[in-house]
Design a protein that fits this description.
3 strands, Multidrug-efflux Transporter Regulator, Chain: A, Domain 2, 4 helices
Length: 78
């Protein structure tokens, strides 16, 4: 019996594409419902951490989730 090592392999074997680990600035902006310049501003301010592969800027999906969860709820704004 062949048991998948992790969820990534399980999704792959099920015929679904595995969840992405890193996304580019444009996809990060889409996922956060922000513009690319807003994502760039958040990176420069140190509020959104990214990685580089050559000249390409890649943002971990876990970092996008962390950022989104850190935002206050509308009721918290007063």
């Amino acid at each position: 019996m062949n048991i998948p090592d992790n969820a990534y392999q399980a999704r792959e074997r099920a015929g679904r594409s595995p969840e992405k680990l890193l996304v580019d600035r444009h996809e990060a902006a889409r996922m956060l419902s922000l513009s690319v310049p807003e994502v760039d501003n958040l990176r420069r301010a140190g509020k959104l951490l990214a990685r580089k592969h050559g000249r390409k800027v890649l943002i971990p999906v876990t970092e996008l989730r962390r950022f989104a969860e850190s935002l206050p709820f509308e009721a918290d704004l007063g």
